[in-house]
Amino acid sequence: MSKESKPAQKRIDRFFSGPGGRADDWRDLVEAAKIWARVGNRAAYDAALAELSVTEEFHGYPGLNLMAALREAAAAGDGPTSFALATKIAQALATRSFRQHAGDWNAKDEGNGDVPELVPPSFGAHTARRPYFETLIVTGVPSSQWPALAAEWRKLRRPVDGFIYEPVIVGSLEDAFCATMLNPDIAAVIINEGFGLRSRHDAPVLRSIMATAALNDESDASALRLAQIIKKVRPELDLYMISNRDVEELAGNPDASVVRRIFYSVEELLELHLSMLEGIQDRYDTPFFDNLKKYAQRPIGTFHALPIARGKSIFKSDWIRDMGEFYGPNLFLAESSATTGGLDSMLEPTGNIKKAQEKAARALGADRVFFVTNGTSTSNKMAVQALLAPGDIAIVDRNCHKSHHYGMVLAGAQPLYVEAFPMTEYSMYGAVPLKTIKQALLSAKADGRLDRVKMVDLTNCTFDGHIYNTRRVMEECLAIKPDLIFLWDEAWFGFARFSPFLRRRTAMGAANEIEAWMHDPKSVAAYDRQQAELGKNPTDEVLLKTRLIPDPRQIRLRVYQTNSTHKSMSAIRQGSMLSVKDVEFHTVEQQFKEAVFTHASTSPNQQLIASLDISRRQMELEGYGLVANAIEIAFAIRHAVNNNPLISKYFRVLGADAMVPAQYRQSGFTDYLAAGVNWANTLKSLDEDEFCLDPTRMTLVCGTAGYDGTQFKGILASEYNIQVNKTSRNSVLVQSNINNTRSDVAHLIRVLAEIAGEIDRGLAQGGANARKTFEARVTSLMKDVPDLPNFSHFHPSFRGDAGAKTNEGDIRTGFYTAYDVAGCEHIRLNDPEIDRRLKAGPELVSANFVIPYPPGFPIMVPGQVITQETIDFMRKLDVKEIHGYDAKEGLKLVRTEALAKIGRPKPAAAPKLKAAS
Hints:
Elements: H1 19-39, H2 43-56, H3 63-75, H4 79-95, E1 132-138, H5 146-154, E2 164-170, H6 173-182, E3 186-192, H7 204-209, H8 223-233, E4 238-243, H9 247-251, E5 261-264, H10 269-284, H11 287-296, H12 312-315, H13 321-327, H14 329-333, H15 352-364, E6 368-372, H16 375-387, E7 393-397, H17 402-411, E8 414-418, E9 422-423, E10 428-429, H18 434-446, E11 453-459, E12 466-468, H19 470-480, E13 485-489, H20 507-518, H21 521-534, H22 540-545, E14 558-563, H23 565-568, E15 576-582, H24 585-599, H25 606-643, E16 652-653, H26 656-659, H27 679-688, E17 691-693, E18 697-701, H28 709-720, E19 731-735, H29 742-782, H30 811-817, E20 824-827, H31 832-840, E21 851-853, H32 868-876, E22 881-883, E23 891-894, H33 896-903
């Protein structure tokens, strides 16, 4: 987000300034205190303390007492004490030691010394530590009584409690909302009646965000309204209400379902305390991991086919003992091929795996979740196999992950490929425009084949960060075919569930919004009104231009979402989850079981299953803060690269305006770093625009530095120990995640500055020839880029009974044609025969998938007719890794004679003889 000038009164609604921004504020305070203590100038300190005091009201630590001590020391003119106390608090926040050390909560030093705790608390620990959280208490009690109220809550703490919490007290709905947004440590909320509506602080962005909630006067500040608002932005939180009115009536109100429990007055404060701890325990429990830990501690004799279990073959060996020393004993003690004795079966879960999956469904907003231990490639194939049958048509993004294409082969379904918008300058594709998807559906309808179109299969977000308006896509498609199935591959986007800003753009987030809309009486009126405007027989042109509203009475909501949990959460590699929200799931449940039997290993890795369980726990309890930090890290990288005078000469991170064409940014949003941008106009973009850009995915252009993507990726890895993932012809993809820190940012920026400096010196010392060579290289990478090839069409032999207006094909037959060695031929890419046949025929038909990395999607699929643009693209490719293509052999093509046999009608079956009378 843009760095706004600081107003006289601190704004409380700068939600983009996350944990790192808070730490910066405390470091600024310490620096100002140091200057005051040494030089005697206290004006900067007073200003910094006044500004910091505003948002610190929303945090449990340093709390009311320590903040009061800071203000008292300043009022007394005591610079040294102010410096010492500010330093102590800043160190406690940086190391998080306040969560366990009672001395950090006292204004006076309790003998911990001047050396801060630098190592994470779990390192070297031998005593059990209680996880720490904070509880937001919304009350109408005057602020003068808050210290006493906090003291009463602290009296409830008991040594036997599994967790420890600190109260955060606010007195208005707006402050409650801001505390929920700004404080990631809040894990439970207690809402009393009698609080006010408005904050006494400045919050213009907040009020523009909340305008849709229709909060106009104090009477709108009801406990139930606040509960619904908080649950929408942070659904993982446990909410408790205390009411002095008819709690029985309130408890029976369907709107109160967002509340975990309702209490009458304050008659059972201990019961409320215990209920909060129970709620945290419910999220903390990891059914499979907990049982696996118990299993590992039992003395078990293993007489099954897993010699590594219990680790005896490792630790008793003179030759592989180092493996045991490296991994430690618990890894082997927890290994087993058994599904009894406290464990469970991945194929038919009935125990703790089943419970773990149910908790994951709650966390992800799904009806059910399947754990998958061999990657989202398998999750995708499972979904495709279970939901599609031979002959079914699926609208598929041609640039999707190869697992979707192979899934179509396995299912015998016919893909109807649709194209994403091209970003030729950067040799990448964006996402598929909604108009293209609607046109495919309308064409199928015109051909009388809409009943065969069963699924829309799209990638959200794309590798490069393009995010669909998932709700709009599903609603408009359901307006054309109300029982469509949607499969959203969100391999890279699992974390978005835990961001209140990005959640609306996830499959499950949008599905839940659509479900709520369907039950709103206004939805039928909106549909009827549009139908009256459209008339009886609207043309396709009109339908393509109209934002279609589906009939809520006809919708059969069927949404599937796959997540690579290991890509954005703390799961071991290959950990994946498949989320389901399907009103018709009972009709395909048996097919899903068969798909699980087909693809899932009968020997799943126990540690991997446990990591899926653990990753759910972490995201439910601290995912909000971790994702906020990942977004903040991304903003820091974008700002540092694009605003550094040296680095920006040769590198830049592309903004949303460069990644998403203007016609798909209807709100006018340009970029997260643009002047004047805040979460209010960002939310407008997230709600309205056809495509948005995931802020955590940064396309770093390196072609302007004279490096192609593959080359620059290699330099970063081999010379600077920096790993990145995807590359294009002239860029690399930098991705922030929940694992990153500000130190990582500093390392990256330092490396880019060093490389930019070397380029600068080389050009300065090399003279005109060096500059000419450099400019030629940059031109080659940034200007002389190959056009991106679109999918052409399937050869008629693989079209079968395809419609006249649609372009689906029998990819399965095309795939297995390659198994016929005699029916295939190879022609080298630069052989003149290629050019001759492109002009004069016969057509070149691919016998297999050809997938260059980059860009990482099939530019040829089995049965596809190869065109001049595809050949031109391949000839210009300078990448080493091309799956499905052997440079020595050449392109694998289906021979013309073999194509004729495929297309030839099958002989009619011999007529059956009638039985003699």
